[in-house]
Amino acid sequence: MKSVLLLGRGLSEYTDMFNLKDDELAGKRILDCAAGVSSFRSEMNRKGFDVTAVDPIYSRKPDELEALAEESFKRHRIFHGDFLSGIKVKGVPLEDYRRAVFRKFLSDYREDPAGYIAGELPHLPFSDLQFDLVLSANLLFLYEEKLSYRFHVEAVREMLRVGREVRIFPVTNIHRRRRSIYLQGIMDEFADHEILIQRVPYHEETGCNEMLIIKSIES
Ligand SMILES: C[S@@+](CC[C@H](N)C(=O)[O-])C[C@H]1O[C@@H](n2cnc3c(N)ncnc32)[C@H](O)[C@@H]1O
């Protein structure tokens, strides 16, 4: 999807988007799905956690990603204009923060390419239940105008195939004023799972502070 911006969030933002707690993550195999240029994998693996990242962009060389990220910074400025100019993440202006995240991502991507798998929803290159937790940030629901309802259903089904628990953030569309038109349908579609919307502390860019959790009901 060409129109998706290649801007990555850092570990502190993932922690807030997904209500993550270190003691609950210890020993878990975690997949960051649609990880893009996020530094989540880099920062988590440095802390000793087991995180794999998957995204279609990982078929590209590091230098190509650098050029694409630069292009995204330009588009982001044009698209959001002044609206985001005052926003800070952890006290740092948004673009400076995103650039720091990108540098962390890129050095890990160069040093440990095995942790970055090229693949795309709705067909991931992993075996059934290879992961305990699958996190997916800033793709589903957000881009509801570009991605069909059918795609959302297939994407969620695929993430549940490879992981026991799936968390999706945000549940709003990119215009941020309301929950995605697909949300209720997805909740109905997976009603035979444990499914809940949870409030989270994050809201910097999306204005949204809700995440969706879906997991298999243990028999
Ligand atoms: C806005 S970025 C979010 C990156 C990261 N999750 C974050 O929150 O910082 C969206 C990512 O979705 C990826 N993407 C687009 N289509 C995809 C698909 N069908 N399956 C998996 N990832 C996809 C893009 O390549 C891009 O890296």
UniProtKB/TrEMBL annotation:
The keyword Methyltransferase applies. Keywords: Methyltransferase, Transferase. GO terms for molecular function: methyltransferase activity. InterPro entries: SAM-dependent_MTases_sf (IPR029063). GO terms for biological process: methylation. This is Class I SAM-dependent methyltransferase. It comes from Methanothermobacter thermautotrophicus.
